[in-house]
Specification:
This protein is 44% helix and 16% strand. It is of the alpha/beta class. It has one domain (3-233): TIM Barrel (Alpha-Beta Barrel), CATH 3.20.20.70. β1 (10-13), α2 and β2 form a beta-alpha-beta unit. The longest helix is centred in the N-terminal third of the chain and has 14 residues, at 71-84. It is globular, with a radius of gyration of 17 Å.
Length: 238
């Protein structure tokens, strides 16, 4: 990772459903200290106009729509995301090799504005019991590892995984394969609907490149101060 990337490991999740609320939150942050994530609810409510407005504020954007469809459909969707100028976009690794490979090849046409293309392995809200209920007879760690290797072979730039699995993946996959970790909470933060959570410093020590943080920052009295505290925790200062 570059020095600039190291300073901007935090991706703040804009978990809201209106343009005004999202831009008010963005305006309370600092693009030198973080990137932002636009997910399904917010993008469905606001569409590409929101992406344009956030880019005008000089923030890098992770478009978190988790595409999962037939290969051609997903490939065309990630190309549209690239044309919007997002920094990162994702697909579901469970969509399979052909789907991920088609998406990666579609981005070969982009050079300077090519986004990072990552694959979701196992959602951090899922436990081993949840996996069993949908017919997957592996532990979350085993399923994450299997899907991460499939993503690497399919041309992905990295994967989304819990910080509980990053140490395992870092021992198996080269450092230039990006690991993005949601579900980051400090001890004083409520876990919410995340079941496999880790603190920011531990996540980086385990090998995470980027940490997705939502409510502990966005619902803080001062989001930018909370963001600074997360960055201090990563640096081992606070």
């Amino acid at each position: 990772m570059t020095e600039q990337q190291d300073r901007k490991r935090i991706i703040v999740a804009l978990d809201c459903n209106s343009m005004d609320q999202a831009l008010s939150l963005v305006d309370s942050l600092d693009p030198a200290l973080c990137r932002v994530k636009v997910g399904k609810e917010l993008f469905t409510a606001c569409g590409p106009d929101l992406i344009t407005a956030i880019k005008q504020r000089e923030f890098d954007i992770f478009l978190d729509l988790k595409f999962h469809d037939i290969p051609n459909t997903v490939a065309k969707a990630v190309a549209v995301a690239a044309e919007m100028g997002v920094w990162m976009v994702n697909v579901h690794a469970s969509g399979g090799h052909a789907m991920m490979e088609a998406a990666a090849k579609e981005l070969d046409a982009f050079t300077d504005n090519r986004p990072l293309l990552i694959a979701v392995t196992v959602l951090t809200s899922l436990s081993e019991e949840d996996l069993l209920s949908i017919g997957i007879e592996r532990s979350p760690e085993e399923q994450v590892s299997k899907l991460a290797f499939l993503a690497k072979e399919s041309g992905m730039d990295g994967v989304v995984c819990s910080a509980a699995e990053t140490h395992l993946l870092r021992a198996q996959i080269p450092d230039n394969f990006c690991l993005v970790t949601p579900g980051i909470r400090r001890p004083e933060d409520a876990s919410g609907d995340q079941k496999r959570v880790v603190g920011p410093a531990e996540a980086v020590q385990n090998g995470s490149d980027y940490l997705v943080v939502g409510r502990p920052i966005t619902q803080a009295a001062s989001p930018v101060e909370a963001l600074k505290q997360f960055n201090l925790a990563i640096a081992g200062i606070g």
